[in-house]
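FAQ: What does a multi-protein file look like?

Like this. Sequence, then tokens, then the next protein.
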Amino acid sequence: MSKFGELIDGTTPLLLVFFEELEERYQEFHPTLTAVAAAVGDQGKVIKIDVNKNPKLVEALRVKVVPTLMIYKTGEMVWRQSGEQDANTLIGLLQEFTD
């Protein structure tokens, strides 16, 4: 968990995407996440977290549904939602939390 703390501590907004690798919906959502990462560039980050490989983190953050999306900035969760979002919505949210 200390690595997680280091990860979310930055001033750059961080979009965490909790997913299941083999879930068909994730395969369809993946291009959206790639587009978001490309659009925000250095102004934000997109981190994908496989729920099956990170059970302690999933439990600590009470992730019950995949995908679950969270935005962290300076160590605080500033936005959270379960379910897919379109690229423009996610880009707008990340830009909203940039300095």
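And here is the next protein:
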Amino acid sequence: MAKKKKSFLLRMDPDLFSELEKWSGDEFRSVNGQVEFILRQAIRKRKGLDKKDKN
């Protein structure tokens, strides 16, 4: 069975949302997709999955 995405309400400053809209448009994503992308990057960084090889 496929996992269902969890939905929740997110309130943010209108200026921040406007910047997020511009950024998501530049990268051909929806605002929701951009938020999810940014959060995934942050989680990967927090877990140390984005460390570059030191060779």
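Q: Is there any per-entry metadata?
A: Some entries carry free-text notes. For the entry above: The chain has a mean pLDDT of 89.
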